[in-house]
Amino acid sequence: MSSAKLVPILTAATLGVLIIEGKYFLRWLTVITFGITLAIILFGAELGLPAVEIRKKENRPNRRDEVKALSRIIRQARKGKTAREIIVERIIEIYASASEDYSSTYSRLRSSPNEAIKKLRMEGDFVKNLEEALKIVEAEINED
Question: Is residue 132 situated within a structural domain?
Answer without folding.
Answer: yes
